[in-house]
């Protein structure tokens, strides 16, 4: 049973005095006049570290336009369940679906969201908006996420993993920010002094996208892939390549020799807890957790954590995996609500709106915000490295059945990290299972020679 939090509709920000309201609206005054008096809309969304910033951005939209938005807030799995039920009903309950990287292709491929430009042919994408590996587009004929497809969504939260490291300890030890995996390992070993300090704390637990998501930057950063070429429809499984083995051996070695003794049981909450309590020298996790590092009510390392792009192998670019969220408009809602949803997304994508998102503690989806003076402020020190990393972000899955592949990876990687099986057995086993899944759905697949 899921918990459902209803955020009441409002047309003015509550609990803010006249001066406070002016400070919120002042940056918005230069925006174009967006349509007012449109139908109220309902957005289904997950509860997450970035939700509060989204809520505050919605409130700013309501205050500026007078339009009404209701937020239906749920746990991660509950949000997906509600979206699936709504889009299959005769009439949908939700106008805007906040879709995760693990399931947006299901919504695109199933025809459950309408193209934004089909609803409003005059809609213009903000030129500075991150397209996040072109995942906002879908070509139904090619079944691919390419810019020659239709515009299906607008980014909401451009989440990728970043390297968090203890800047104060780096200064004391005379360490340099690592750009390669070798340098990261050397630095982690240097800081490793258990149980008071672990060189690096990683996720290893099974979940909907837990250990697999944390493994992706290592896999891609060493030059590995899961499939040969998804964009071209070639789903030959390449996970069990030499690059894949190098990545998994490295991930396991870090855990055993410079990491947490219970890595196989660590989920995201454990990783965040290790960093904020001062027992981790490094973590690699989504940037949305950055706000907790300087929160004096949660953190013992206020102003001590720094951020960098994820390392990679020499000669290869950083390759963080997308774990982002996109906003699509449900196909089975009345036209007036679809048009109202377009107006919200037209407003949301702008630099001014995304500057409000940043000030509220969120992660902007508009590249222009990262060039603003705000990026020079100490509390936003994550912005410059994030802007450097985002153009290199990798979309792991371009097909609707991604959740089935993720489940295979979660089990196999967890067992390898726990030491139940070796890396070669894990990779060959996962590759075989993934090939069966893809063949069962008639994708062009196969696998490379086993290790």
Quick structural overview:
The chain has 451 residues and is an alpha+beta fold. Helix content is 37%, strand content 14%. The longest helix is centred in the C-terminal third of the chain and has 18 residues, at 423-440.
Helix content: 25-40%
Shape type: globular
Q: What distance separates the N and C termini?
A: 43 Å
Strand content: 5-15%
Low-confidence stretches: 1-33
Written overview of the protein:
The two termini are 43 Å apart. The protein has helices at residues 18-25, 51-65, 76-87, 104-109, 116-119, 167-173, 181-191, 211-221, 242-258, 268-276, 290-293, 335-348, 351-359, 383-389, 402-418, 423-440, and strands at 5-7, 41-46, 69-74, 96-100, 113-114, 137-138, 150-151, 153-157, 161-166, 227-229, 234-237, 282-286, 305-308, 325-330, 445-447. The chain has 16 helices and 15 strands. The protein is an alpha+beta fold. Helix 8 (211-221) packs across helix 9 (242-258). Helices cover 37% and strands 14% of the residues.
Topology diagram in text:
Elements: E1 5-7, H1 18-25, E2 41-46, H2 51-65, E3 69-74, H3 76-87, E4 96-100, H4 104-109, E5 113-114, H5 116-119, E6 137-138, E7 150-151, E8 153-157, E9 161-166, H6 167-173, H7 181-191, H8 211-221, E10 227-229, E11 234-237, H9 242-258, H10 268-276, E12 282-286, H11 290-293, E13 305-308, E14 325-330, H12 335-348, H13 351-359, H14 383-389, H15 402-418, H16 423-440, E15 445-447
Features:
16 helices, alpha+beta, 7-stranded mixed sheet, about 35% helix, about 450 residues, 3-stranded antiparallel sheet, disordered N terminus
């Amino acid at each position: 049973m899921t918990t459902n939090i209803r955020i009441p509709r409002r047309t003015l920000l509550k609990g803010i005095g006249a001066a406070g309201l002016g400070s919120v609206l002042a940056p918005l005054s230069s925006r174009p006049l967006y349509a007012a008096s449109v139908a109220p809309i309902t957005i289904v969304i997950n509860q997450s570290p970035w939700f509060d910033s989204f809520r505050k951005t919605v409130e700013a939209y309501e205050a500026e336009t007078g339009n009404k938005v209701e937020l239906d807030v749920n746990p991660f799995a509950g949000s997906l369940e509600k979206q699936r039920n709504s889009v299959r009903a005769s009439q949908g309950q939700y106008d805007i679906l906040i879709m995760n990287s693990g399931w947006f292709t299901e919504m695109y491929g199933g025809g459950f969201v309408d193209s934004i430009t089909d609803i409003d042919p005059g809609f213009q994408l903000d030129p500075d908006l991150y397209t996040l590996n072109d995942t906002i587009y879908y070509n139904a004929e090619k079944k691919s996420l390419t810019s020659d497809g239709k515009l299906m969504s607008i980014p909401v939260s451009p989440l990728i993993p970043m390297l968090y490291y203890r800047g104060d300890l780096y200064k004391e030890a005379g360490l340099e920010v690592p750009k390669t995996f070798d340098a990261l390992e050397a630095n982690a070993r240097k800081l490793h002094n258990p149980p008071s300090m672990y060189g690096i704390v990683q996720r290893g637990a099974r979940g909907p996208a837990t250990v697999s998501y944390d493994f992706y930057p290592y896999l891609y950063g060493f030059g590995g892939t899961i499939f040969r070429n998804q964009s071209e429809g070639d789903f030959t499984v390449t996970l069990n390549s030499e690059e894949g083995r190098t990545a998994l051996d490295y991930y396991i070695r870090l855990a055993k020799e410079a990491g947490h003794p219970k890595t196989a049981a660590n989920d995201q909450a454990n990783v965040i807890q290790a960093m904020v309590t001062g027992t981790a020298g490094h973590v690699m996790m989504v940037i949305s957790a950055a706000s907790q590092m300087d929160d004096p009510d949660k953190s013992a390392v206020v102003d001590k954590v720094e951020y960098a792009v994820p390392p990679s192998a020499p000669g290869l670019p950083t390759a963080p995996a997308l774990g982002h969220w996109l906003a699509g408009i449900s196909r089975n809602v009345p036209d007036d609500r679809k048009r109202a949803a377009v107006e919200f997304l037209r407003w949301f994508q702008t630099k001014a709106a995304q500057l409000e998102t940043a000030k509220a503690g969120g992660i902007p989806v508009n590249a222009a915000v990262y060039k603003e003076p705000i990026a020079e402020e100490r509390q936003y020190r994550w912005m410059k490295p994030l802007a450097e990393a985002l153009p290199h972000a990798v979309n792991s899955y371009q097909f609707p059945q991604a959740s089935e592949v993720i489940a295979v990876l979660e089990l196999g990687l967890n067992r390898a990290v726990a030491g139940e099986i070796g890396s070669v057995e894990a990779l060959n086993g996962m590759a075989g299972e993934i090939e069966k899944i893809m063949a069962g759905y008639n994708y062009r697949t196969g696998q490379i020679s086993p290790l």
